[in-house]
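Lab channel / #folding
Pinned by the channel admin:
"Please post every new chain as: sequence first, then the structure tokens as a reply. Keep commentary short and put observations after the output so the thread stays searchable."

First post following the new format, from NK:
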Amino acid sequence: MEKAVVDRIVDKRRAVLLVGENEVEKIVSVDKLPPGAGEGIWLIVEFEGDELVAAEVDAEETVRVKARIAAKMERLRQRGRKTDK
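Reply from TO:
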């Protein structure tokens, strides 16, 4: 089992996952995703070759990454305000 993020949904039928530390791109049917999975959601996945055989939402990782991104965005906003003066 490894981690993956749902990078994007294409044509409402296919999901592009970035899998593992190297963010290997895998395309899977949206039907194979667990309920609640959408763009930006982290998963714990298992593949056999290119076929997704198991997936579950990794709620902790999703919250952690979203919080990290929000903090970075706030720092950028603060930096932008300082240069506007």
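NK: The CA atoms of residues 76 and 82 lie 10 Å apart.
TO: also worth noting, DSSP finds one helix and five strands in the chain.
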